[in-house]
Amino acid sequence: MANAAVDGTDTGTGIPRVLIAADKFKGTLTAVQVAERVTAGLHRVLPGLQVEALPVADGGDGTVAAAVAAGFTRHEVRVTGPLGEPVTAAYALRGDTAVVEMAEASGLQLLPPGGFAPLTASTYGSGELLRAALDAGARTIVFGVGGSATTDGGAGMLAALGARFLDAAGEPVGPGGGGLRDLVTADLSDLDPRFASLDLVLASDVDNPLTGPKGAPAVYGPQKGASPEDVTVLDEALSHFAAVLEKSLGDRAAELARAPGAGAAGGIGYGALVLGARFRPGIEVMLDVLGFARALDRATLVITGEGSLDEQTLHGKAPAGVAAAARAAGKEVVAVCGRLVLPPEALGRAGIRRAYPLTEVEPDVGRCLADPGPILERVAEGIARDFLT
Hints:
Blueprint: E1 17-20, H1 31-45, E2 50-53, H2 63-69, E3 73-80, E4 86-94, E5 97-101, H3 102-106, H4 124-135, E6 140-144, H5 155-160, E7 164-166, H6 176-179, E8 185-187, E9 199-204, H7 216-220, H8 228-249, H9 252-258, H10 264-274, E10 278-281, H11 282-290, H12 292-298, E11 301-309, H13 318-328, E12 332-340, H14 344-350, E13 354-357, H15 365-370, H16 372-387
Parallel strand pairs: 1-2, 1-11, 5-6, 6-9, 9-10, 11-12, 12-13
Antiparallel strand pairs: 3-4, 4-5, 7-8
Helix pairs in contact: 1-16, 8-9
GO molecular function: kinase activity
Keywords: Kinase, Transferase
Protein name: Glycerate kinase
C-alpha cells in the first residue's frame, strides 16, 4: 500500500481513514445497512475513527439506492410491472444525470411468491421508467440491468418508448418473449427522438450475447422459472425478434444481438443497444457516478464486500471492481461477506488482502441469515483490531 502502513494508517498524517464501499448482502442487508453496521463495529473499537461510507452496486438491484446514498435525489413513478399490474418504481437524479434500475420496474422481486412468468413477463415498465427520467431532464442515463423477471429482449421497453411490434393481423404481439414468436412487423419509426441525443449507458455485470448457448434464455431463463422447453421457445423467439429487426436496422440488428451485454437481464441489454446505448461493466460505471475515485483518495483502508464472495465475485461484481480500483491506487482492501468460498490466493489476485465472513464469528448459518447486523458489527470489530490498532 503506497504511503501507508499495513495497519491502514496514512504514514503522512498518522490519521487513518476508512472507506466502506460494499454492496448489499442480498436478501438480508442493503448496501446502506452494511455500511452502517460496519461503521458501528469499527467505532466500537476506535470511537474517533474517520469513516466514509459509499454504498456501491454493480447495476443490478440496489443501484438506485446506492445512487441516492451518494447524493442523488430519489423520484418515484407509477409504471407497469412485469405481469402488467401497476407498480411504484424509483429512479435517481442529480443534475442532468439519472440512474435507472430496470429491476425497479421489471424485477423478480415484483413477482408474487412462485409467480414466475418466463414467457409473458414484460419490460414495458422499464421503458416507462426511462421515459420518466427523460421527462425530468436527464441527458445522461445510467441504465442498470439485472435481477429481471423477464426474457423479452427489451421488446416491452421499446414498445413503451414508441416502437410497434405487430403480428400477421397487424395487431400488437402478446407480452414477453413468448409473444415475439408471432412477430411479423417491427416499426421503430416512432421511437422517442430524445434517444438520438441521449448518452445512454448500459451498466451490467454480465456480457452474454442475446441468444445461443451463452445467451439470455439458456443461461438465465431457468432462474426465472423457464423449463427446458421454455428456454427453447424463448431462444427461438429472440432469434426471430432480431431477424425481424433487420428490416429496420439492417446488419446492425444481428451485430447487436452478438454484442457483449445484449443478453443482460433477459435481453433488455439488446433493446438498450438498439436505442444506442454503450455497454460498460456495471461496477465501473457506478464507481464513476458515485464519485469513488475522490473518496478513494481520502482513504487509507478500503472495506468492500457482498453477501457471497465466490467465483462470480471475480467476474464483474462490485467487490472485484472496488478492489481493482483500490489496488491501482495503492490502497489496502479487506472484505466482509456472509459466505466465503474463495481461497486466499484468489482473493489476493483480486486485490483483497483478507476476507471476513459472518460465519467466522457465528458458525450457525441460520443465525447469520436471520439477524446478520449484529454479527457484521462483531466482524468489523475484528477488522479494526487487525488493521487499525
